[in-house]
Amino acid sequence: MKSFHFKRSQGFTLVELLVVIAIIGILVGLLLPAVQAAREAARRMECSNNTKQIGLALHNYHDTYKKFPQGARHGLTNPNSWRFALLPFMEQQAIADLARAAEAAGTMINFYPKGNAAHTLADYNIYTQPLINLVIPAYACPSSAAPEIYAYSSHFTNTGTQRINYTGIMGAYPDPAGRTSSSYQTQYSSFATNNGSLLINEHTAFRDITDGTSNTVIVGEQSGNRRFPTRTANYHSGWSGYGYSGTVATWNAGAASQHRFGSGVTALYHSPNPTSLGSEANADWDSNTPLTSYHPGGVQVLQADGSTRFMSDTVALEIVLKLATRDDGQVIGEW
Predict the structure, then answer these.
(1) CA 166, CA 299: separation in Å to the nearest integer?
(2) 55-79: per-residue pLDDT in tens?
(3) Cis peptide bond N-terminal to 137, omega within 30
(4) Domain DUF1559, which positions (predicted)?
(5) What is the pLDDT confidence band of residue 247, given thresholds at 50, 70 and 90?
């Protein structure tokens, strides 16, 4: 008589399956932070390369004109920021030419969507079209969670143009050397300064940076963070350097009558990524908007010699103010 032997089928029991799933979950939990860290490291390197490109463009501008561009300009005639001035030096000559052609045709490129008595919102639509929805990669930090383009509507900052993530440094407040003639109070209880390198209505040159180009920060990252996701020094747009009201040539400490903006530049008053702005004004575009980023631990900064550094959130405010000032004669030390 034949006997039959049944072989047990090979497979996972429920317990074994749960164990395998648990192991996979643990491995994913261990690997995911490493993958995220690697991606952020790559984004941070790209951001550093952006600041290097800006530095090269600034140096090429200086080689051509023997001075740095104005950080911002007062008035309605061509009030463009240093970011616009660098376009020809960042392989964007065609865009600059289109906007300049509009200016030559008699329409001021003021990036001001509400218009004015002479130039309406319709003018804005026609003559600033080259810059609407345009994104210059070197002006955008890949880690930023803020929208690349401002929403378009009839408001000051809603211009349909790029939210540029790097701001010019017009100096520091208070002045590290104690000078009282280097700042004035602006409309939103903040302080504009002229002790930095990219100024309102003024040019500087290498000869003016007496502290040394390796001891002076000329551009800083301002790409937002989780606490202040959209706070930037952009008043009318990422391109505008527009300022209004007050006489920029007058520098009186605490002169409250000097109400004005200078878009695209900031005077440092805080350490990077501050947890609080204290009693400072709530306006997103005041003169002391801090350096911010989504990079863990700090922000990218460009020094006047063209080199880039990662400035830690924990760096002493005293050092930040000294780095932002071109001619205070103060010893900085390691940072």
Answers:
(1) 10
(2) 999 999 999 999 999 998 765 555 5
(3) no
(4) 36-317
(5) very low
- Rounded to two decimals, the pTM is 0.82
Closest CA to 189 of 58, 277, 274, 68: 277
Question: Are 54 and 198 in contact, with CB atoms under 8 Å apart?
Answer: no
Round to whole Å and give the CA distance between 139 and 219.
12
b vs e for 274-309, b when ≥16 Cβ sit within 10 Å of the residue's Cβ? beebeebeebbbbbbbbbbbbbeebbbbbbbebebb
**For residue range 186-241, what is the model confidence (pLDDT) as tens digits?**
666 678 889 999 998 889 999 999 999 999 999 999 998 877 776 777 766 677 66
